[in-house]
Predict the 3D structure of the following.
Amino acid sequence: MIKIACIGAPSTGKSTTASELKKIVENRNVVEYISAGQFLKSCGYGINEDGSKSTGKACVLFHKISVATMDLIESNDIMVLPRTIIDPIAYDDIEVSEEDVKEYFSHIDFVFYFPIETKIEKREMRTDNEDFRSSIDVKLKDLSTKYGIKWIELKGNPHEKAEKVKSLISERE
């Protein structure tokens, strides 16, 4: 299994790129892992600007369990994680140990950073606050530096991003 972590503020093309990747990758499944925030929001809990320490802590646990679970599954799938363990730190000011962050990312094959290139596309469960989105982008980059997370920046439209991801996976294999 190839595990891809996406770092980026809301509406930067993470899910759309995963959808494009599904269209162009042959002979294997591309699975976008549900984010903890999506799950919590569907249960009626606040996320984004309305998140809390409790939802942030739940997200951290969800991320830790997610990567541990994936390591148990033998498959040829490409697993795309639209959120990572550093998101609750950025969104909800949750404290996560450096050890936990490094352990999480040690299970990831590729980390891609999605910069802000367009205005927010309105969608259910997504903030429409551009200032909030910009602050999350800065926090995620700062956290990546703090924890030594090496990422590859993806720019362009979702199809171009997906092609770059496909190419990098092919080079590794």
